[in-house]
Design goal:
Shape: globular
Structural class: alpha+beta
CATH architecture of the largest domain: Sandwich
Largest sheet: 11 strands, antiparallel
CATH class of the largest domain: Mainly Beta
Number of strands: 15
Radius of gyration: 19 Å
Strand content: 25-35%
């Protein structure tokens, strides 16, 4: 179940109890400054509440993303966020939490936090696991036909042409985002939860899958790239954010690192 915004409103009262007045600059105030510091290594939150406040999310990556989105929009990213996955978690793999398995309930309450980059898209939603872009109308993580578009990572062009499938994920450290092409389904063995084994291997985030002995990709995969922002434009592509698919195909999207980092329990 993905919590709705009104179901998370109780967090506001908890936050006010331990931090009645927040004097730290908001992301909006930071962005208006004449000089904005380069987004380097993720940092602890500048706020100093009277006592730590920790939210434990028991659910899927989509549920975790909903809570992270709420904290981001409310400027409450100083709150500690723990995740007890109820399904295989790409977020846990991204951040290397318990070898990618995620926390159990006891660990979620007792383990320390670490700051990690928080990425968001142009609709104001946080991404904790991955964003998937594919040919419209399919259900898997890639297709042989692919989608046609142009992708930039920061100011560098990743490709202009076709892609069998593209995953965009947060990284556990700077610069914050990695974009990598997903092999066509007949080129590599992978799982179906968005955590393709071959992709994880290429990103250094997990064990690699095996290539089928008699199959080979029709071309070399586009090289993975890291940066602080990813811009995509195309004729039409399917857009899936942490397992939740947009209602209709999109023609453009932008994902970028937020000015405040997520304080995740690990």
């Amino acid at each position: 179940m993905i919590p709705a915004r009104k179901e998370l409103a109780f967090i506001d009262d908890l936050a006010k109890d331990v931090l009645p007045i927040d004097t730290a600059p908001t992301p909006e105030e930071i962005s208006k400054q004449k000089k904005v510091d380069h987004l380097g290594a993720p940092q602890p939150a500048p706020q100093k509440p009277s006592e730590p406040l920790r939210i434990v999310v028991v659910g899927t990556d989509a549920a975790l993303a909903a809570v992270a989105t709420y904290l981001m929009r409310k400027n409450l990213l100083w709150i500690e966020l723990a995740h007890v996955p109820t399904a295989p978690s790409t977020a846990a793999k991204n951040w290397g939490i318990e070898g990618g398995e995620g926390l159990d309930a006891t660990a979620a309450l007792t383990r320390p936090t670490m700051p990690v980059p928080l990425i968001r898209d142009d609709t104001g939603h946080a991404i904790v696991g991955y964003v998937l872009l594919t040919e419209p109308g399919i259900t898997g993580v890639s297709s042989e036909n692919g989608f046609t578009g142009e992708v930039y990572v920061d100011e560098h062009q990743m490709f202009s042409g076709t892609s069998t499938g593209l995953q965009i994920r947060p990284t556990p450290d700077a610069p914050g985002i990695v974009a990598a092409e997903v092999p066509a389904p007949d080129a590599e063995v992978g799982n179906e939860d968005g955590g393709n084994k071959g992709l994880l291997s290429r990103l250094g985030l997990g064990r690699g899958g095996r290539r089928k002995a008699k199959e080979a990709p029709s071309r070399e995969l586009h090289r993975p790239m890291t940066g602080r922002a990813v811009q995509v434009g195309g004729l039409s592509f399917r857009y899936v954010r942490d397992g939740v698919e947009s209602r209709k195909p999109r023609e453009k999207t932008t994902l970028y690192r937020h000015l405040r980092d997520l304080q995740i329990v690990h």
